[in-house]
């Protein structure tokens, strides 16, 4: 059984892209335990366990900065993580409740053939905009993951544009 993996092998095992793994290394979130003589990244079982922890925390919706703090052991407990999730969910619920209230107000006005005031219309648009921004941010994150996977499938062995000195290095 292989106890060390190159970046491409680790990417294939985890469903991440080589580009994502390089980015995690660049920001100091997840670095390889070593390098080959030719400079290729080498990961071991400990690295794999750490990456699984990172991916689990990301699945909970934590930002990379939050994940980094947790992984570095900066005083985050499982309870803290649950509380962060609860706060995010409450925020989303408040936004959706506000949107529902604005839509109900508009519906009531329109049912009685009344026109919307500029303030009512502006309030509705603002809530709809915030709701849409949150929705599209979540969709964008999902699409970025899909595009990363597609990019890997189409050109896994493409040179790394971030590494001009050794374009074939992984």
What is this structure's SSE topology?
Layout (H helix, E strand, L loop, with lengths): L3 E3 H8 L3 H9 L7 E2 L5 E4 H15 L4 H8 L6 H34 L6 H38 L15
Antiparallel strand pairs: 1-3, 2-3
Question: What's the gist of this structure?
Answer:
By secondary structure, this protein is mostly helical. It has helices at 7-14, 18-26, 45-59, 64-71, 78-111, 118-155; strands at residues 4-6, 34-35, 41-44.
Keywords:
Multidrug-efflux Transporter Regulator, Chain: A, Domain 2; 6 helices; 66% helix; three-stranded antiparallel beta sheet; 170 residues; 2 domains; mainly alpha; single chain
Written account of the structure:
Residues 4-73 form the HTH merR-type domain. Keywords: DNA-binding. The chain is elongated, with a radius of gyration of 23 Å. It folds into 2 domains: 4-74, Multidrug-efflux Transporter Regulator, Chain: A, Domain 2 (Orthogonal Bundle), CATH 1.10.1660.10; 78-153, no CATH class. Helix content is 66%, strand content 5%. The protein is built from 6 helices and 3 strands; from the N terminus they run E-H-H-E-E-H-H-H-H. It has 170 residues and is mostly helical. Strands 1-3-2 form a 3-stranded antiparallel sheet. A hairpin with a 5-residue loop joins strand 2 and strand 3 (41-44). The protein has helices at residues 7-14, 18-26, 45-59, 64-71, 78-111, 118-155, and strands spanning 4-6, 34-35, 41-44. Mean pLDDT is 78; it is low at 156-170.
Instruction: Report the span from N to C terminus.
Output: 22 Å
How much of the sequence lies in strands comes to 5-15%
Query: Share of helix among residues?
Result: 55-70%
Structural class computed from helices and strand pairing = mainly alpha
**Counting H and I runs of at least 4 residues, what is the number of helices?**
6
Query: How many β-strands, per DSSP?
Result: 3
Low-confidence stretches: 156-170
Shape: elongated
- Largest sheet strand order: 1-3-2
Mean pLDDT: 78
Largest sheet features: 3 strands, antiparallel
Tell me the radius of gyration. 23 Å
Number of domains: 2
- Run of helices and strands: EHHEEHHHH
GO molecular function: DNA binding; DNA-binding transcription factor activity
Pfam families: MerR_1
Protein name: MerR family transcriptional regulator
Keywords: DNA-binding
């Amino acid at each position: 059984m292989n106890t060390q993996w190159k970046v491409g092998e680790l990417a294939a095992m985890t469903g991440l892209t080589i580009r994502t793994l390089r980015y995690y290394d660049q920001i100091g979130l997840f670095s390889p335990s070593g390098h080959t003589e030719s400079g290729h990244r080498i990961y071991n079982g400990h690295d794999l366990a750490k990456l699984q922890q990172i991916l689990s925390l990301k699945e909970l919706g934590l930002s990379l900065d939050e994940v980094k703090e947790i992984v570095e052991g900066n005083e985050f407990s499982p309870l803290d993580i649950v509380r962060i999730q609860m706060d995010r969910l409450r925020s989303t619920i408040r936004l959706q409740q506000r949107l529902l209230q604005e839509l109900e107000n508009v519906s009531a006005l329109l049912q009685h053939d009344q026109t919307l005031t500029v303030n009512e219309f502006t309030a509705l648009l603002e809530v709809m905009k915030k709701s849409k921004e949150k929705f599209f941010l979540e969709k964008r994150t999902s699409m970025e993951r899909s595009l990363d996977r597609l990019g890997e499938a189409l050109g896994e062995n493409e040179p790394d544009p971030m590494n001009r000195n050794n374009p074939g290095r992984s």
